[in-house]
Amino acid sequence: MTTTAVRKDGPAAVTPTPTIGGHFRNYLSRVRGGDVGALPAVLGLIVLCTVFAIMRPSSFLSAGNFANLFTQGAAVTLIAMGLVFVLLLGEIDLSAGFASGVCAAVLANVVTVLGYPWWVAVLAAVATGVVIGTTLGMLVAKIGIPSFVVTLAGFLAFQGVVLLLVKDGTNISVRDDVLVAIANRNLGPTLGWALTALAVVGYATVQLLRHRTRAARGLITDPIAVVALRIGGLAVILGAAVYVLNLERSRNVLISSLKGVPIVVPIIAVLLIIWTFVLQRTSYGRHIYAVGGNREAARRAGIGVDRIRISVFVICSSMAAIGGIVAASRANSVDPNTGGSNVLLYAVGAAVIGGTSLFGGKGRVLDAVLGGAVVAVIENGMGLMGYTAGVKYVVTGVVLLLAASVDALSRRRAAATGTR
Amino acid sequence: MSATPLLELRGIDKSFGPVQVLRDVALTVHPGEVTALVGDNGAGKSTLVKCISGIHPTDAGEFLFNGEPVHIGSPRDAASLGIEVVYQDLALCDNLDIVQNMFLGREKRSGIVLDEPTMEQLAAETLAGLSIRTVTSLRQHVSSLSGGQRQTVAIAKAVLWNSKLVILDEPTAALGVAQTAQVLELVRRLADNGLAVVLISHNMNDVFAVSDRIAALYLGQMVAQVKTTDITHAQVVELITAGRSGGLGLATDPGSNGDGPQPADSTSGGVR
Ligand SMILES: Nc1ncnc2c1ncn2[C@@H]1O[C@H](COP(=O)(O)OP(=O)(O)O)[C@@H](O)[C@H]1O
Ligand SMILES: [Mg+2]
Predict the structure, then answer these.
(1) H or E stretch including A207?
(2) Domain B1-82+163-272, classified CATH 2.40.30.10, yes or no
(3) B73: CA distance to ligand 1 center in Å?
(4) Is this complex's ipTM strictly greater than 0.90?
(5) pTM confidence score
């Protein structure tokens, strides 16, 4: 079965190996056909950063503020990464925000009230997320209640659970060194560079190996120049970010030095890599897309649809738990509003702004990170410009609507230009 | 025409609750031949196919595969015998590409990682083996394909698994003239490659264009199974609408009202 001879008149061989120009023309025609991907998020990010950089050059562009963006956006981004899985099935989890609050409250209780070590608390929080997700998923997949209703009920109930777990409705402080470090400490500059190098080399290895295997088998490959461009692009972006984060950002170096990559960054990066691998490179991930695209087709293909539907809620709530841990770390405490107010809408907004479709079947974990960056920049920039919380909510709401419109319109466009 | 039929059904009965949909149905399917299964809406064609593919259990009857009695209790049993079905409503995912659709649920892996190059190669070989040249890239999403191309992918998916019997439920119902011709040509090629093919169709032109044999179902009964060359258009239409035609079909009037599904009221309840 290794005949390259067959390939010669095989259908794929009809198209010659694309050139760089051809590659970009393909990309443009995909965009015009409605497959905009992460383009709106990237453009939005550039526009927003430019605007804020002009309006508040000294504060927005400072190294300290750049580092702030990561710690500010981390919790929402982590929750959004889990939401992508639920959205891929065309479902929704409105309870993810307060689920993260419940898990954070469990964390605080275990570590502060009961006095267990940090890792027991983390395990307890994540386990709570797994239990929550399993329950939600069962109600949706086995009983057949629409996810909107199940998770709306969860939204209310979990809000109550947080209140019950945080006795007297005040707060529980989190003072454990390791837990506090997650959202408040940085990697040493050398370690930051080492991890960056590892990431770039790892990415390059994966890309080049893939290119070589495909070329060796006579399959169509992206032009090597495009592959090189991707690797170079990643190296430049990561390099620039790490360089800035490694600058001294303490107001008074004599008192304390403050520099390095915030610890949440490698945490998000590792989860991004793991979940991207799961979605793109395993049959489980393939089946998630299939169930999101056409549930009946997936069922006939022998895929355990219920199992997939339950599992995405488990992933979502577990990621919410991790988001909750980061939020608790950043605030040094858990209160009844942890995971509340705007957290859920910011997370849904992040996923959708990044390019994940609300209609199911389309989305990547990277979308949550890009969209999370957009949300963080809006929140941060508008704060620097002195706008009140009211204005920030309105603007974020409008941005979410914009993103949802792009999603709906690109779907219509795809329906009009494709045959369906 | 070969001596042992690939698949032989005898005395198949199937009821849904009080409604008997299939009554004492017999069917023989030979390798290298296209057997057209015809019948009015609600005659039980889709139900018969679902019995063969293991989706519905039968109430009575025998299955012989290559002359051996077999039991088909699930779609997996059918698949392991080499029976593949292309359903009336195409079971494709719009958001996946051609290769991903062809291997859906049966992905090739190395370790836990999907083996994309192997799947892409096998898909290309299958399409090349069927002389399919209408798709330009194996990596294009199925949503961007025309109806005929989608049907082509669905058929290629069915033959990817060394299948011996491919059943197509009204594959041309939603297609235009040119695309219908393409798909029929492909159906013919499957049989010429040695597969047994069962083609369900309403369209007499299609049936006479590609089939070797015609099996006519009338209100759940197999009223005739004849070689296509031995029968005329008009006779087939009579078999479909009245259950008999001259010496063919039912001997007596079957219309002892009430105990069989009526074609008129079953069009909406049928499997789409
Ligand atoms: N799952 C089912 N439950 C009850 N009745 C069914 C079911 N599937 C089909 N039927 C009935 O069986 C009869 C034959 O249907 P079908 O096999 O779909 O006919 P055809 O494909 O020939 O149009 C119809 O009367 C239909 O209503
Ligand atoms: Mg039918």
Answers:
(1) helix A189-216
(2) no
(3) 19
(4) no
(5) 0.86
